[in-house]
Specification:
It is a single chain. The protein is an alpha/beta fold. It has two domains: 43 residues, no CATH class; 311 residues, TIM Barrel (Alpha-Beta Barrel), CATH 3.20.20.210. It has 14 helices and nine strands. The strands form three sheets. Strands 3-4-5-6-7 form a five-stranded parallel sheet. Strands 1-2 form a two-stranded antiparallel sheet. A two-stranded parallel sheet has the order 8-9. The longest helix is centred in the middle third of the chain and has 24 residues. The chain is globular, with a radius of gyration of 20 Å. The N terminus is likely disordered.
Length: 362
């Protein structure tokens, strides 16, 4: 049985009771039951459970969550090595966020021998050794935090990594000969899968997986989206879904916006992290996304808005609005990475506020 099916069949079998056996929870969270086979109830809503169970409980849309998980992400000056490990740990502890989201900081080298679409088959497949510095961070954080929180490394999209390898001009090649460029995208995708598989071996519980390429200014509504974005994104998300407990689909609008989001409904993924607004300027409603995708949502706050620029009081006003309009199963966050200049103390106050919001706004 696949892990995502196990979650559905065992973790939420108790339905409206809001509890399951400790064995089921521990198994779903990658832990062993204590010796002696204790099976005391573990309450997923309101009981003494750790952050792993609190986030996993959001997946059960048959009943509302009393606890609102929250998480915000930023890049650190320390990209890799022990510095990055220390900084991720410090940030997780200081902000009280509900899962350990690990930033991706490996940059693929720019290729100078790809001068025409037909050259894309020369793009190499990078093995796990290439990603070793990033994997070192994942493994160390898994050892430190896995017992208390889900370990969710970031995965960049094939479209994004193609830009690292080729520069922005690669879109011209894609339009000239998409069949030839697809060979390179296949190699990039296999590289990402090598990274994902080893990350799981090192303790990753799932991934924060970015999709790019479908923005209005890129492939948009053209056949290129279906040829060069959908199949490769889907391969990554499906592999992750088969191997991991939980995956977040991040529909990334960094630098560009989307005409619509429903073209992503068929994508695998446990939770949706959508943009705040579309190309026509209309706002994206998190409750609408949850109803259309039939999956919980992470987000609600604009990464460029008050979460990065406002006072705690101003941010809490936005949080009040977001949570009042959100579906009952929801994780508070931003639509993408927030400014690295944002005060950790401010983030902590907002996350703590979200945790208590349902009990104080009943």
């Amino acid at each position: 049985m696949k892990k995502r099916d196990f979650l559905k069949s065992s973790l939420y079998a108790a339905g409206g009771l809001g509890l399951v056996s400790s064995k089921a929870v521990l198994a779903a969270c990658g832990q062993k039951a204590p010796a002696g086979g204790a099976t005391a109830p573990v309450y997923l809503h309101g009981g003494k459970v750790n952050k792993r169970e609190k986030v996993l409980a959001v997946l059960d849309q048959s009943k509302p969550n009393e606890y609102v998980p929250a998480a915000f992400f930023m890049h650190f000056k320390e990209k890799l090595g022990q510095g990055a490990i220390n900084r991720h740990l410090e940030y997780f502890r200081a902000t009280n966020m509900d899962f350990a989201k690990i930033q991706y900081e490996i940059v693929l080298p720019r290729l100078t021998n790809i001068n025409r679409p037909e050259d894309w088959e020369k793009i190499p497949v990078y093995d796990k050794e290439f990603f070793a510095p990033q994997l070192e961070v994942i493994g160390a954080l898994a050892k430190e935090l896995k017992s208390e929180a889900l370990i969710l490394p970031t995965v960049y999209s094939p479209f994004s990594l193609a830009g690292q390898l080729m520069g922005e001009g690669f879109i011209t090649h894609a339009r000239e000969n998409p069949d030839a460029v697809a060979k390179g995208f296949a190699h990039i995708t296999e590289s990402i899968l090598n990274y994902i598989r080893e990350a799981v071996n090192l303790g990753a519980d799932g991934f924060y997986i970015s999709s790019q390429g479908g923005e209005a200014a890129n492939f948009g509504e053209s056949p290129l989206f279906d040829q060069l974005t959908v199949p490769f994104d889907t391969a990554i998300l499906q592999e992750s879904s088969d191997k991991a407990l939980l995956n977040i689909l991040h529909i990334c609008d960094y630098g560009n916006t989307y005409n619509r989001l429903d073209k992503f409904i068929s994508y695998p993924g446990s939770i949706i992290n959508p943009p705040i607004r579309l190309a026509d300027g209309s706002d994206v409603k998190t409750k609408d996304v949850q109803e259309r995708f039939r999956r919980p949502v992470l987000g609600g706050l604009d990464r460029l808005g008050v979460i990065s620029t406002g006072s705690p009081e101003e941010i809490k006003k936005d949080v009040d609005k977001v949570l009042a309009e959100a579906a009952p199963n929801f994780i508070l966050g931003a639509d993408c990475t927030i400014s690295g200049e944002t005060s950790w103390q401010t983030i902590r106050s907002v996350i703590d506020y979200a945790h208590d919001w349902r009990s104080t706004h009943a």
